[in-house]
Amino acid sequence: MIAILFVGAFVAILNETLLNIALPSIMTEFDVSPSAVQWLSTGYMLVNGILIPASAFFIQRFTNKNLFITAMFLFTAGTFLASLAPSFGVLLVARMIQASGSAVMMPLLMNVMLTAFPVKKRGTAMGTFGLVMIVAPAIGPTLSGWVIEHYSWRTLFYIVLPIAVFTLVYAIFKLKNITPQRDIKLDVLSIILSSLGFGGLLYGFSTAGENGWDDPLVYGTIIVGVISVTGLIMRQLRMDDPMLEFRIFKYPMFALSSAISIVLAIAMFSAMILMPIYVQTIRGISPFESGLLMLPGALVMGVMSPITGRLFDKYGPKLLAIFGLFITISTTYFFSKLNMETAYGTIMLLYTLRMFGMSMVMMPVMTNGLNQLPMKDNPHGTAMNNTLQQVSGAIGSALLITVMNNRTETKAAELGKEAMANIDPSTMASEQAMAEMQAQIANNAMLNGINFTFLISTIIAAGALILSLFMKRVDTSQNQKEQQEMMMKRTANHDNHPATVTNES
C-alpha cells in the first residue's frame, strides 16, 4: 500500500520540475511570451498552495483510498490532456488539473505513514519518504534536459502517463483504508481566506524576482495575502473544529521543527536557483549537463534518506541536525568562492556534499516535530508543514534573486567605472572591443552577485544551526498509546463487520 502511494506521489512531484526546461520549446510551438509560458509553473504552484492547506480537512473527512483515487484520477486526466494539448490554453488548464490532484498526494502520504508505522519506526518510514520529497524534483531537470534534446516536450507527459494509469488502476484494487475519519464540515470562509492568503503570498513572492518589488501586482498580492492569512488564523483559533489547526504550534518541538524547516528551505533554494544561472549563463554549460551536475546529489540524498531515518530512530534528531547543518553551511560557504575557472567536477562534488548534509537534517527535524502532535492532529501537522515549505520556498527565491540582482547591478556599475578609468583611449573607437568589455563586466558582476548571495545563504543556514541546538527528542509514549488503541479499535471493527471493511470504497 505504501508502495502505491509512493509511486503516485513520486510522479506527481516529479511533474512539478519536469516542465521547467521545456518552457522555451513550448513558447516557440505555441508562439506565447515568456511571461505567459511561465504560468505553466506559476499556476501549478498556486493550485498547490491553495489546496494543500485544505488537505487536512480532506484527509479527516474522506477515506485515504477514495482521496488517493480521486487525486490520482485528476492527475492522470490532466497528464493525458496535456499530452494532446492543441493550444497553450488547453495545456495550462491541463496543468491546473494535474496540480489539483498532486496537491493532496504529499500530505496524504505523510499522514498514512504516521498512522501505519509504530512511533518508534517513524524515522525509518519518513526517511524513505525523503526519496519522494527530494529525489523526484532533483531528477526532473536532468530527465527533462535529455528528453528535450532528443524528443518533443510532449514526450515528458508520455513518460508520466503510463505510470500514473498503472498506479490508479492498482490503487482501485489494492489500496486499503487505515486513516480514521471524522464527520466534519468544510467552512467556506476558511477556504476563501486560505486561497486568497496563501495564493497571494505565493504569487507575490514568486513574481517579485522578475517584476521587482515596486510592481503594484507584486506588493498588492502580498498585502492581500498577509491580510487574508491573518484573518484565517484568527478565524481558525475561534473555531472548535478548524479547517487548519494553528494551535499545534503550542507544541514546542513542532514549532521549532517548523522554524528550522523554513530557514533551511530558504537556504536550500540558493543552490537550486543560483547554480543553473552560474553553470548555464556564466559558464555556458548545456541545460542537460547542468541537470546532470545535480544528479549525484539527488542520488546521494535518496540513498541517505532511509539510513538517516534509521539513525533518527536510534539516536534522535539533534546530532543528525547539527552534523548535517555543519556540512550544509561549509559547502554553501565554498560556493561563495566560485570563479570562472572552477572545475565542473569540483562544483558537482560540492553540490553532492551539500545534498548529503541536507539529507541528515530535513526528515529527522520534520519527523521529530510531528511525533509531538497527538494522532488527531497529524493531518493538520502534515498540511502545515507542506504549506510552510511552499510559502518559504517562494519567499526564499524572491529574497535571494533580489539580493543577487542588487549586488550584480552595484558591482557592474563599480566595474564599469574602473574599466573606463583604465581603458586605453585608442581602443574606444572599436565597437567590438567595447562589446567584449561590457560582456566581461556583466559576467564578472553576475558572478560576484551569485557569490554574495551564497554568502547570505550561508548566514541563513547558520541560523538553522543555532535553532537546532535547542532540539530535544520528544516523548512518544502518549502517541504510542493512542496508536495502539486505534489499531485495536480497527481490528475490532474488522472482526465485527468484515464485509463492510473489506468492501469499503
TrEMBL record:
<keyword id="KW-1003">Cell membrane</keyword>
<feature type="transmembrane region" description="Helical">
    <location>
        <begin position="66"/>
        <end position="85"/>
    </location>
</feature>
<feature type="transmembrane region" description="Helical">
    <location>
        <begin position="38"/>
        <end position="59"/>
    </location>
</feature>
<feature type="transmembrane region" description="Helical">
    <location>
        <begin position="155"/>
        <end position="173"/>
    </location>
</feature>
<dbReference type="GO" id="GO:0022857">
    <property type="term" value="F:transmembrane transporter activity"/>
</dbReference>
<comment type="similarity">
    <text>Belongs to the major facilitator superfamily. EmrB family.</text>
</comment>
<keyword id="KW-0813">Transport</keyword>
<feature type="transmembrane region" description="Helical">
    <location>
        <begin position="129"/>
        <end position="149"/>
    </location>
</feature>
<feature type="transmembrane region" description="Helical">
    <location>
        <begin position="319"/>
        <end position="336"/>
    </location>
</feature>
<dbReference type="InterPro" id="IPR020846">
    <property type="entry name" value="MFS_dom"/>
</dbReference>
<dbReference type="GO" id="GO:0005886">
    <property type="term" value="C:plasma membrane"/>
</dbReference>
<dbReference type="Pfam" id="PF07690">
    <property type="entry name" value="MFS_1"/>
</dbReference>
<feature type="transmembrane region" description="Helical">
    <location>
        <begin position="97"/>
        <end position="117"/>
    </location>
</feature>
<feature type="domain" description="Major facilitator superfamily (MFS) profile">
    <location>
        <begin position="1"/>
        <end position="476"/>
    </location>
</feature>
<dbReference type="InterPro" id="IPR036259">
    <property type="entry name" value="MFS_trans_sf"/>
</dbReference>
<keyword id="KW-1133">Transmembrane helix</keyword>
<protein>
    <submittedName>
        <fullName>DHA2 family efflux MFS transporter permease subunit</fullName>
    </submittedName>
</protein>
<dbReference type="InterPro" id="IPR011701">
    <property type="entry name" value="MFS"/>
</dbReference>
<feature type="transmembrane region" description="Helical">
    <location>
        <begin position="217"/>
        <end position="234"/>
    </location>
</feature>
<keyword id="KW-0812">Transmembrane</keyword>
<feature type="transmembrane region" description="Helical">
    <location>
        <begin position="291"/>
        <end position="312"/>
    </location>
</feature>
<feature type="transmembrane region" description="Helical">
    <location>
        <begin position="254"/>
        <end position="279"/>
    </location>
</feature>
<feature type="transmembrane region" description="Helical">
    <location>
        <begin position="450"/>
        <end position="471"/>
    </location>
</feature>
<feature type="transmembrane region" description="Helical">
    <location>
        <begin position="342"/>
        <end position="366"/>
    </location>
</feature>
<keyword id="KW-0472">Membrane</keyword>
<dbReference type="InterPro" id="IPR004638">
    <property type="entry name" value="EmrB-like"/>
</dbReference>
<feature type="transmembrane region" description="Helical">
    <location>
        <begin position="185"/>
        <end position="205"/>
    </location>
</feature>
